Amino acid sequence: MSPLPPCPACQSEYTYEDGALLVCPECGHEWSAQEWVSEDEGLNIKDANGNPLQDGDTVTVIKDLKVKGSSLVVKVGTRVKNIRLVSGDHDIDCKIDGIGPMKLKSEFVKKA
């Protein structure tokens, strides 16, 4: 059995099945079990060198990246642990020490 997806409304991880529906106990959102596609099945994300990435991987930044809305910079060689893959333009969701949560593009990282 595959793990249930987080709630699309509040991102709660405590979703459960109720018949043909998936339900979030925190916000009360309900959605059809057939509507969701497991994130692992739909994403084929690769790093700058073409290596496939998975949730929980550790990656290294290969280019200085300016943090939008701040004077901070993510330096070359910064290691980012425990990434989470998401769909969209910025396809890596992570937390960087000293900066906080942010999204990265897979084209600017390599698998460590």
From TrEMBL:
- Lineage, top-rank taxon, reads Bacteria
Q: Where is the Protein YjdM C-terminal domain?
A: 45-112
Domain Protein YjdM N-terminal, chain residue ranges per copy = 4-32
| InterPro entries in UniProt | YjdM, YjdM_C, YjdM_N
* Stated family: Belongs to the YjdM family.
Q: Which PANTHER family match?
A: PROTEIN YJDM (PTHR30305:SF3), PROTEIN YJDM-RELATED (PTHR30305)
Name of this chain's protein = Alkylphosphonate utilization protein
> Which organism was this protein described from?
Nitrincola tapanii
